[in-house]
């Protein structure tokens, strides 16, 4: 497939512009620019997905692409695979040795392009996960070699992302057309059945369908973003006509969310739960969600004095979807769904714009040290708020802008006294709650049930092995709690 080379991007396109520090220059000040696509990298056709992700880095970084190609073509196996053969183990070690022998490539020329940086993060984080999860389980400490550590941490610092596989790496920037359009920038959104993945761990249809379910949700959600913008425009007018239009838009938004629910449910058609749990999911676990207690040690970090030890290494999670966060923030549901529900008393948390003040800069934390513990510490930052640090920085700026809206829809509904508007709002919130009902079912089917089977096969009790999500949480309790608190956002007549 052909791909966009950075030199071929039109001069007036967002990605050809200098990379601004959206909303971060003034400490504590949210970005209050317009909701134009070029401000937040939200495409009118593909939403939070790029119109066409880069599929290959230029020749200067070909050795990274080659290493990833070899990992895939070698069909590397998980180190804890029950029937791992000596031949599989030897093949994995030969590949890891080639990775250790790679040169430490400069990232200086990557910094001129957001597109190149995203592809580099994709390639290097996939290489790291292939490396980490193919290491023999007898190895007590996971040492990531300098040829991966140095450029991955440098690229991650530029993108303000953690140096680990994220939702952006396995969904947002991991797709391509089956039948490519005739132009570099197609005029219409891609058809949901015209997608395939660029990179896979297992080369199975199950893995591809798992990622594509999320990709299809992102693309179908473009209409939701359009409706949000229309409602925000009407809210600034605030007259009787505007309220009637917002009422109609909310019903339409509910219909879009119902379609997202159907797409989510359809993951069952292409991805087998046992295959997912045992063969796919272990590959993209981060340090926080790995079952073992082994440290992840980033070797070579001392070669660049600007680098810091990573503290965010949770791995990809559906909680990193900017689209779902945008729905929460726009409807005012985030005050409920993003609360730290795992404590005894759920407490509504600050809105999304407060996240930068609470969270460390992604991928950095304190002075560099030789080693660090990858075990997640206790934190008062709610999981969904923390997951925003795994999103592309422009999308975080979008959420901050959305949450700083001076006329929030929920407040407008509460103060309008319009019964039809309140009912329409509740219809939209209820649709989001049903979406999360489906997510609860998916987590039960794909994580809870297979983990129970695994415990019983190993003769372990329930307490021996919690069913963790890839973000490091107790997966079922997490999605169930978010679902329950979404329902708590419904408004009662007269509120």
Automatic annotation (TrEMBL):
Keywords: Iron, Metal-binding. Residues 74-93 are annotated as: Disordered. Pfam families: IDO (PF01231). Transmembrane segments: none annotated. Gene3D superfamilies: 1.20.58.480. Belongs to the indoleamine 2,3-dioxygenase family. This is Tryptophan 2,3-dioxygenase.
């Amino acid at each position: 497939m052909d791909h966009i080379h950075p030199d071929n991007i039109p001069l007036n396109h967002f990605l050809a512009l200098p990379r601004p520090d959206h909303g971060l220059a003034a400490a504590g000040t949210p970005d209050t620019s317009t909701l134009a696509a070029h401000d937040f990298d939200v495409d009118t056709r593909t939403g939070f997905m790029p119109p066409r992700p880069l599929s290959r880095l230029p020749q200067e970084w070909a050795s990274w692409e080659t290493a990833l190609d070899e990992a895939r073509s070698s069909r590397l196996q998980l180190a804890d695979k029950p029937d791992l053969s000596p031949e599989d183990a030897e093949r994995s070690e030969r590949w890891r040795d080639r990775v250790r022998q790679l040169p430490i490539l400069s990232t200086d020329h990557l910094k001129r392009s957001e597109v190149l940086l995203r592809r580099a993060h994709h390639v290097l984080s996939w290489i790291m996960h292939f490396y980490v999860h193919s290491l023999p389980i007898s190895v007590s400490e996971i040492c990531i070699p300098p040829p991966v550590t140095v450029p991955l941490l440098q690229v991650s610092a530029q993108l303000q992302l953690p140096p680990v596989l994220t939702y952006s790496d396995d969904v947002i920037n991991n797709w391509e057309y089956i039948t490519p359009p005739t132009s570099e920038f197609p005029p219409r959104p891609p058809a949901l059945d015209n997608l395939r993945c660029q990179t896979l761990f297992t080369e199975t249809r199950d893995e591809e369908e798992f990622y594509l379910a999320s990709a299809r949700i992102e693309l179908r959600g473009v209409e939701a973003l359009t409706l949000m913008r229309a409602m925000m425009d009407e809210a600034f007018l605030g007259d009787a006509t505007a309220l009637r239009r917002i009422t109609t838009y909310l019903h339409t938004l509910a219909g879009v969310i119902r379609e997202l629910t159907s797409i989510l449910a359809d993951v069952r058609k292409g991805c087998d739960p046992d295959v997912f749990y045992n063969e796919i999911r272990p590959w993209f676990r981060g340090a926080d969600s790995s079952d073992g207690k082994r440290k992840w040690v980033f070797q070579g970090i001392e070669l660049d004095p600007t680098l810091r030890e990573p503290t965010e290494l949770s791995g990809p999670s559906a909680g990193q979807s900017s689209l779902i966060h945008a729905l929460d923030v726009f409807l005012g549901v985030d005050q409920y769904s993003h609360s730290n529900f795992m404590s005894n008393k759920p407490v509504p948390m600050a809105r999304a714009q407060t996240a930068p003040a609470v969270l460390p800069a992604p991928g950095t934390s304190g002075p560099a040290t030789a080693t660090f513990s990858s075990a997640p510490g206790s934190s008062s930052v709610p999981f969904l708020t923390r997951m925003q640090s795994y999103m592309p920085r422009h999308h975080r700026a979008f959420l901050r802008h959305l949450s700083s809206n001076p006329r929030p829809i929920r407040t407008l509904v509460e103060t309008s006294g319009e019964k039809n508007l309140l009912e329409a709002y509740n219809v939209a919130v209820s649709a989001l709650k049903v979406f999360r009902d489906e997510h609860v079912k998916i987590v039960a089917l794909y994580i809870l049930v297979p983990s129970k089977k695994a415990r019983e096969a190993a003769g372990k009790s329930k307490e021996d092995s919690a069913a963790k999500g890839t973000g490091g949480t107790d997966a079922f309790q997490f999605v169930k709690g978010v679902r329950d608190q979404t329902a708590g956002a419904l408004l009662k007549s007269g509120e």
